[in-house]
Specification:
The complex is a heterodimer of chains A (536) and B (205).
Chain A: H1 24-27, H2 32-60, H3 71-90, H4 93-106, H5 115-135, H6 153-156, H7 161-188, H8 201-233, H9 246-280, H10 287-301, H11 316-344, H12 353-376, H13 378-384, H14 388-418, E1 420-421, H15 424-450, H16 465-495, E2 497-498
Antiparallel strand pairs in A: 1-2
Chain B: H1 14-45, H2 47-56, H3 59-84, H4 88-118, H5 126-130, H6 133-168, H7 178-203
Helix pairs in contact in B: 1-6, 1-7, 2-6, 3-4, 3-7, 4-6, 6-7
Classes of the chains: A mainly alpha (536), B mainly alpha (205).
Chain lengths: 536, 205
């Protein structure tokens, strides 16, 4: 009730004692901030599980032939790596952690619109995670279809596909409910005086993301249900032996899963848009263009799924149309990049770790984006389809984009979330290691991909070994950097210096309240600025 | 903490709750939208099998069910008006009629499916696997779509039954009826989907 004028006493949300005590005060919490932290812990843990699997794949690929695992194990590991990273880490990632924690604060609300539903989404998220992780250990062995569950292989393989797809369905349901909650929150709970175009741009990004979650996820939901029914009853929607159509599965799958890429990246773009004006102490350049470009990306993003299927059998008209739309979606993304750069121009730039992550983001996102255009043009796509070029491209977008935005966001907001500050010097060193490791890991994959190294292969020709070795070394450097970063953050959150309310001199609402925030976020009403990035 | 309200209980926003329900209805429509897409693809691929398949279905039972659902949509809308006009007794009666119609629908569905099961026509049966590709897909879609719809009917029954008991114990009344409003919205959705399923499966031949 943002219009409640009554003043309340300050109680840190971390220390508040409600109806439940101890661990239950977290499991049964309806506080959006606590739920955000719960998601954070789950996602960091799952990220490391996925990252270790990635590292195992890198070790396997350090030399041709069998190095540390059998081919079937390798198939299981790349599938599980994909399922964990995509469905449990990057798709929910930013919106459930930082959206939950900061969306209500940024728009001056005391919580999300449906706190109980929010708690329910968190519970089914955990249920989905348990199902997915369990599917790896059941007796039929981990699924080996890749995270995309392509039919007809997924309808005939003997591994645990049903449980893994059902887990993806459950996680999708959680995603839909979170999106629904955020849309209603933004419509109904903005503080009095805050119009849509007075909102901070992270809220705009979350708004666009939430619509994508809401409208795209049901399609994959029904597709996965059809796949399960097909496996249980031999129906044959997607099996050509029974009259079905495997390309239809690919269409239905990507109708969701391409917009899902924007579910991952839009909040990341929003976070970078928050970090840059704060560390340049300058009003954001082109507020409306950035806000509307989020919606444009979400809108056009619904219509480009066919570019995953240029080699799957589509008419030529369909192919050039999808290619054209793919190029179009680059325009609003580039608008954002230009506006960020224009914001930095003549700003008083402060090279703190969050800003370094934002800079790295722009660099990596640009490489990922432009290689995306190479993949979006039909001729080159046919050349590099299903090679490690594609793997490098989407890791630059997903890890270099969403991942670095996540790291930037946690460095930016940790003092607000825990009321403590991390060690700035270690954070900067960790950033350097991560940046170098990341590029060493993925850049060689562009090159060997261009030369013909297929993705998802257990073995390769000796000519690719140099690239693979560099890539594996990069993988180790990256994981070392990540461990240092996480260690530094945990240490900071537990025992760092107490952080002031506004350590970065930010101008948005979260910096006007104490660190950590009070239980109800705002103990007294704050004045709403017409431009949230108004620096004196 | 003195004088501090629990922030969650104090919150009430009927407009927000309705907006949330409408958004949820969008997602349900898209869920079935995926199925309609699959239906149209296979209908275009196997037109004659789909034609023959639809002749196998009983238009009479389908029509009775359509009337039952349309009637129930009317009664649930009237139940909402009744509670708004502060007449809980009438509202409860109308919800009961709605639930009765829903049970009629499910009973008919049971009869319809039962006959097919007796003939050995059900997903995973030996007969199904010997059918033509087009026939197999038609009946698979028939069972999948009507099955998923029946599941939604059951969810709707639960929601409306909860509203019934809420009126009975007085927690749903003329000043606070958003639960019933949302329940009714959901019920209209279930009805609407049937309005599409009925012609697609039974009538277009």
């Amino acid at each position: 009730m943002s219009n409640d004028k009554e003043k309340t006493e300050y109680v840190s949300y971390l220390e508040h004692q409600g109806k439940y005590k101890g661990i239950f005060s977290w499991i049964f919490t309806m506080d959006h901030k606590r739920i955000g932290l719960l998601y954070l812990y789950a996602i960091v843990a799952l990220f490391f599980v996925g990252a270790i699997m990635g590292l195992l794949m890198r070790i396997e690929l350090i030399a041709p032939g069998e190095t540390i695992m059998k081919p079937q194990t390798y198939n299981g590991i790349f599938t599980v790596h994909g399922i964990i990273m995509i469905f449990m880490v990057v798709i929910p990632g930013l919106s459930v952690v930082f959206g939950n924690f900061f969306l209500p604060i940024l728009i001056g609300a005391k919580d999300v619109a449906f706190p109980k539903l929010n708690r329910f989404s968190w519970w089914i998220y955990i249920a989905g995670c348990i199902l997915a992780v369990a599917s790896q250990f059941m007796k039929d062995g981990p699924p080996d279809t890749g995270w995309s569950f392509y039919a007809p292989y997924s309808t005939s393989t003997g591994t645990n596909v049903i449980m893994a797809t059902f887990a993806a369905f459950v996680l999708g349901f959680s995603s839909i409910l979170t999106g629904l909650n955020f849309i209603v929150t933004i419509h109904q709970l903005r503080a009095p005086g805050m119009k849509f175009f007075n909102m901070p741009l992270f809220s705009w990004a979350i708004y666009a993301t939430a619509w994508t979650q809401l409208l795209a996820t049901p399609i994959v939901g029904i597709t996965l249900l059809m796949l399960i029914a097909e496996r249980l009853f031999g129906i044959g929607f997607f099996n050509p032996d029974l009259g079905g159509d495997p390309v239809l599965f690919e269409h239905l799958f990507w109708i969701y899963s391409h917009p899902a890429v924007y579910i991952m990246i839009l909040p990341a773009l929003g976070i970078i848009t928050e970090i840059i004006p704060t560390f340049c102490q300058k009003k954001i350049y082109g507020y409306k263009a950035i806000a509307l470009s989020s919606l444009a990306i979400a809108g056009v993003g619904f219509l480009v799924w066919g570019h995953h299927m240029f080699t799957s059998g589509m008419s030529n008209q369909a192919r050039w149309f999808f290619s054209l739309l793919t190029f179009l979606v680059a325009v609003p993304s580039a608008i954002k990049v230009f506006n960020w750069l224009a914001t930095m121009y003549k700003g008083s730039i402060d090279m703190k770790p969050p800003f370094l992550y934002a800079l790295a983001f722009i660099f990596l996102f640009t490489i990922g984006g432009t290689t995306g255009l190479l993949l979006g043009s039909i001729a080159t796509n046919v050349q590099v389809h299903d090679t490690s070029f594609v793997v490098a491209h989407f890791h630059y977008i997903i890890f270099g984009g969403m991942g670095f935005a996540f790291f930037g966001a946690i460095h930016y907001w940790l003092p607000k979330m825990y009321g403590r500050m991390y060690n700035m010097r270690i954070a900067t060193i960790a950033w350097g290691i991560i940046f170098v490791g990341f590029n060493l890991l993925y850049f060689p994959q562009f090159i060997i991909g261009m030369q013909g190294m297929p993705r998802r292969y257990f073995d390769y020709l000796p000519q690719f070994q140099t690239g693979q070795v560099i890539s594996t070394i990069g993988g180790f450097i990256l994981i070392i950097g990540t461990v240092i970063m996480v260690y530094n953050l945990i240490k900071g959150a537990r025992s760092g210096e107490p952080a002031p309310a506004n350590p970065w001199h930010g101008s948005t609402l979260e910096w006007q309240i104490p660190s950590p925030p009070s239980l109800e976020n705002f103990d007294e009403a704050l004045a709403i600025k017409s431009n949230p990035y108004d620096y004196e | 903490m003195s004088g501090k309200k629990m922030h969650v209980e104090a919150h009430r926003d009927d407009e927000g709750a309705k907006l949330g329900m409408w958004l949820f209805i969008f997602t349900e429509l898209l869920l079935f939208g995926g199925l309609f897409l699959v239906y149209s693809v296979f209908r275009a691929k196997y037109p004659t099998n789909f034609h023959e398949g639809s002749l196998e279905l009983s238009v009479t039972i389908g029509a009775i069910n359509t009337v039952a659902l349309l009637f129930s949509s009317m009664t649930i809308a009237m139940a909402l008006s009744a509670i708004q006009k502060n007449n809980p007794k009438l509202s409860m009666l109308l919800i009961a009629v709605t639930l009765l119609m829903a049970c009629v629908f499910l009973f008919n569905k049971y009869i319809e499916w039962g006959v097919k099961f007796e003939h050995g026509l059900y997903p995973g049966s030996g007969l199904m696997s010997r059918l033509d590709h087009g026939d197999l897909l038609f009946f698979s879609l028939y069972f999948f779509m009507t099955g998923l719809h029946a599941l939604h009917i059951i969810v709707g029954i639960v929601l409306l039954a909860i509203c019934f008991f809420k009126i009975k114990n007085g927690s749903l009344h003329s000043q606070k009826y958003v639960h019933l409003e949302n329940g009714a919205l959901y019920w209209h959705l279930v009805d609407l989907i049937w309005i599409f399923l009925f012609p697609l499966l039974y009538l277009i031949a």
